[in-house]
C-alpha cells in the first residue's frame, strides 16, 4: 500500500471517529459532561472513593491534605458531590480536608428501593458516614435540603460538629409558593421554569442537552418524589432545633433565591442567636456555584476563626 493510500485511510478513520463521537455527544451529552468532569477530578488529585454505610454503598469525593481539619459538605435535593466542585478547592487550598458525599439515592451512590429518603433518615446515614471515616469535631455544611439534613445531624450529635454552615438552606416550616413538581421535570418548558427558579437570568439549554437531562430526570424521579413527599409533611422541620444549637453557625444566602428565599434565611438567623448571616447579591439558590469567588474566602475565614 502506497503512502498516499495509507494517509487517505488514516484520514478516513479519523473522520469516522469524529463523526461517531459527534453523534454520541448529541445523543448523550450529559454522559460526556460527566465524563469530562470525572477526568478533571482525577487530574486535580480529587480522591474518588466508596464506603458501605448502614448497608448502602455511598460514593464520596475527598480532597485536601489528609492531616487537615475535616469539612463535610452535603448537597441538596437532586444534587451530588460534584455540586461543590467550585467551592471545595478554596477549602482544600486553605489546608482543610474536604469530604463530599453522595447521599443515598443521588450521584454515584446506591439507590435502595427500601429507603425512605426523608431528611431524618438521610441525617442518620450522614452521621454514620462520618463515624465510618472515624472523623471527630468536623466542620459540617449543607446546601438546600442538605442544610436541613445537617441541622438535624448537628442537633442529634453536637459532639461531632465543631462549626455548622448552611447554604441557602431548607428546614423551617414553609409551604413552597412554587410548583414542587418542577424538581421532576417532564418537558423542556418545565426544565426552563426550574432553571428560572434556581438562578437569576438562566442561559437557554440546547434542545439536545434538555432532552438528555429529561431522560435522566424520568429515570430518578421516584427518589425526588419520595424525598419531597416526606419533606412536605412538615414532620422534620427544624424551627425548634435551631435555638438549641450551641456551635458557631454561618449562613450563606443568595439575595435572589426563590426556592428558599432570603426571608427564610433571616428567620433562621433570628432563631440561632450565635449565627452569622452573609448575603450575596445577584445570586439565587445556586449561590455556592454562582458566587464562589465571594463565598470561598468568607467560608475559609469563618472556619479559621
Mean pLDDT: 91
- Give the H and E element order: HHEEEHEHEHEHHEHEHH
Number of strands: 8
Strand content: 15-25%
The low-pLDDT segments are: 12-21
Termini gap = 72 Å
The number of domains is 2
Rg, nearest Å: 21 Å
CATH architecture call of the largest domain: 3-Layer(aba) Sandwich
State the helical fraction.
40-55%
For this structure, what is the CATH class of the largest domain? Alpha Beta
Which superfamily, in CATH terms, is the homologous superfamily of the largest domain?
Alpha/Beta hydrolase fold, catalytic domain
Which class best fits the helix and strand makeup?
alpha/beta
CATH topology of the largest domain: Rossmann fold
- The backbone outline, from C-alpha atoms, is globular
**Major sheet size, sense and barrel closure:** 8 strands, mixed
Give me the side-by-side strand order of the main sheet.
1-2-4-3-5-6-7-8
Count of helical regions: 10
Question: How would you explain this protein's 3D organization?
Answer:
The chain has 305 residues and is of the alpha/beta class. It has two domains: 43 residues; 255 residues, Alpha/Beta hydrolase fold, catalytic domain (Rossmann fold, 3-Layer(aba) Sandwich). The protein has ten helices and eight strands. It has an eight-stranded mixed β-sheet with strand order 1-2-4-3-5-6-7-8, with helices on both faces. Strand 7, helix 8 and strand 8 form a beta-alpha-beta unit. The radius of gyration is 21 Å and the shape is globular. About 3% of the residues have low confidence.
